[in-house]
Design a protein that fits this description.
The chain is built from eight helices and eight strands. It is α+β, with helices and mostly antiparallel strands.
């Protein structure tokens, strides 16, 4: 669980008691490639930290898949809209590889936030990061062309190229695989 401590230490400082209570609240869960961590129409009641593996957050519309983001090792995440509203999610979170996560239930998070201001501060910052990430993603999709989106992905996530399919990459970029092939050929 030292990975979680390293991650949160970059965000906020927890005293010894808060740190111990926080770590005690997590459960270790394993998912096989293709398993859903969250299915559409489920309410997201957990925050996750990826110990190993890779996931994607996506939704389907009219037989087309739209990938919002990928979550890799040492990332803490949730499906933020469902988590906050307690309404069924339209998104799915799927393991793209065998994936091990630490999971913490929302009820435990609320209890920890009431007990420890530093944990409340941590989750406030995590919500802010999620919001900023969504704003960046929306801006990128609205303002950048496909070539620029591809270049941004390469510069920020080059290590994922060997781990995701070209279909997933094209769905993330919002283009066809044929268009992706053309962009890649121009390098």
């Amino acid at each position: 669980m030292k990975e979680i401590l390293e991650y949160i230490s970059k965000i906020t400082l927890l005293d010894t008691t808060a740190r111990e209570d926080f770590l005690d609240a997590f459960e270790l869960k394993n998912f096989k490639k293709g398993d859903f961590i969250l299915k559409a129409d489920q309410v997201c009641k957990h925050y996750y930290f990826i110990k190993s593996g890779l996931t994607k957050s996506h939704f389907d519309k009219e037989d087309k898949e739209f990938i919002m983001t990928f979550f890799k090792e040492n990332m803490m995440f949730t499906e933020i809209s469902s988590y906050l509203t307690e309404r069924p999610s339209k998104y799915m979170i799927m393991a793209l590889e065998d994936t091990t996560v630490y999971s913490i239930n929302k009820i435990k998070i609320i209890s920890l936030c009431k007990k420890h201001h530093s944990i409340e501060s941590l989750f406030s910052k995590l919500f802010s990061f999620a919001t900023l990430g969504m704003m960046k993603r929306i801006s990128e999709m609205l303002e950048e062309d496909a070539t620029k989106r591809y270049k941004n992905f390469i510069s920020e996530n080059n290590e994922l190229l060997q781990r995701i399919s070209l279909g997933d990459l094209s769905n993330y970029l919002g283009i066809t695989q044929v268009s992706l092939s053309r962009i890649r050929a121009k390098k």
